[in-house]
Structures are given as structure tokens and as C-alpha cells.
Amino acid sequence: MTIDDTLVNRLGWFASLMGILMFSSIDQIRLNLQGQPGSVILPLATTVNCFAWMAYSFLRRERDWPLFWANSVGAVCGFATALTALVM
Predict the structure, then answer these.
(1) How far apart are CA 83 and CA 69, in angstroms?
(2) Dihedral pair phi/psi, residue 2, rounded to 5°
(3) Based on the structure, what is the number of domains in the chain?
(4) How far is CA 66 from CA 8, 61, 72, in A?
(5) Which structural domain range is residue 50 located in?
(6) Cys-Cys with 57: which of 21, 33, 68, 70 at CB 3.0–4.6 Å?
(7) Half-sphere exposure (CA, 13 Å, Cβ side) for 9?
């Protein structure tokens, strides 16, 4: 039994969207800006993890774009969350 490539591609983009929603720390950034800073450890770990997955997906022979883009959003959000937790 083979799985249709179109289905696999759609599943990859769906998983990317779910990853973006999971890594999106907009609410924590909002709280940080309102003077309720959270821990900086989790956002920094998220940032490093997402950069590692971005590198992995980009350096593969056949680049994995859904994985790359989902983790790029996670890296940006993780960095912004860590920054606002430190500055505020």
C-alpha cells in the first residue's frame, strides 16, 4: 500500500500550521509587555530547538520546507518571548 504524495504534502503543511500555533507565544509576549514576565528558559530552549530543526530541514538533500517554515516561526516567536521576558 502506498500513500499518495499529495496527501503526504498536505499532511506536512497541516503539521506545520499546528507547529506554528503551538510555538506561537503571542500571549506570553503580551503578558511580558504588560509587566508580567515569564521564565526565559523555555523560550530560549524553543529558539535553539527551532533553529536546529531549520538547519536540519534546510541542509537535507531534499529540503523539507513545511518543517523549515514552521520552525522559523517558532524561532522568531521564541526569541521575541525571551527578549520581552528579559527586557520587561
Answers:
(1) 21
(2) -110, 150
(3) 1
(4) 11, 15, 10
(5) 5-87
(6) 68
(7) 4
CA angle 8, 72, 78 (to 5 degrees): 125
State the 10-residue block means of pLDDT for the chain, 88 residues long.
Answer: 78 83 78 85 90 94 90 90 85
Identify the CATH number of the domain in which residue 23 sits. 1.20.1280.290
Three cell numbers, residue 51: 533553529
Cell of 57: 530541514
**Residue 20 is which amino acid?**
I
Three cell numbers at 36?
Answer: 508580567
**What are the grid coordinates assigned to 80, written together?**
521575541
Q: DSSP readout, 33-53?
A: HTT----SHHHHHHHHHHHHH
Query: For the whole model, what pTM was predicted?
Result: 0.71
